[in-house]
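Quick log. Single chain, no ligands specified.
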Amino acid sequence: MEPISIYTSDNYSEEVGSGDYDSNKEPCFRDENVHFNRIFLPTIYFIIFLTGIVGNGLVILVMGYQKKLRSMTDKYRLHLSVADLLFVITLPFWAVDAMADWYFGKFLCKAVHIIYTVNLYSSVLILAFISLDRYLAIVHATNSQRPRKLLAEKAVYVGVWIPALLLTIPDFIFADVSQGDISQGDDRYICDRLYPDSLWMVVFQFQHIMVGLVLPGIVILSCYCIIISKLSHSKGHQKRKALKTTVILILAFFACWLPYYVGISIDSFILL
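-> predicted structure:
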């Protein structure tokens, strides 16, 4: 009987029914860092969990009580806080997983992957909507109130939350719990996306790159470049300050996300 290969999102394969295992297929050697990760990762997750719960919780509470005073930007901040709050709720599960094992079963494995995916896509798509809002507010300042309100109150659900939920379908299908290779002394339970073939992983990684970076990146870059062009022809201290802030926003977005997606792209081409 031939071994069945199961490909995970961490880019390794387990030979089910076979004792053979090639450690050279690992992108990094986990055994060398396991003790470090059991201390470092739970600590980081705990810090992010506490700050995320407090920070995002306060934003949601304040925005909830000030419905009439909310600006368009505040409405997007509320969406971002909801997305981030959902994500930080999953961190205790990942902390326990890093420290010991996955004890939470198949249902919660799928749930935390789904929440992670919703946060990942919704947060970056909301940033694209914010750039559209800034574009309308600055470039079309005289007649932008109605389209800005439409974007912030209705289009954001169609353009952010529905796509983010639809993109969790692979998590519904592939996120599962598997056990390590007992013959190699690894009896831990692992919560991951288990793909039947490496091609599936490549397809979903390219989808991830397109929806998570390329499409929102084009929107953000286009909107802010037009804004920069508009502000560069204006005079005054406030205009120069707004121009500087716009440039910083563009650089911050790509500085934070580009290295991550370059790594995914390299990994995808290696798997081809």
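The CA atoms of residues 231 and 242 lie 8 Å apart.
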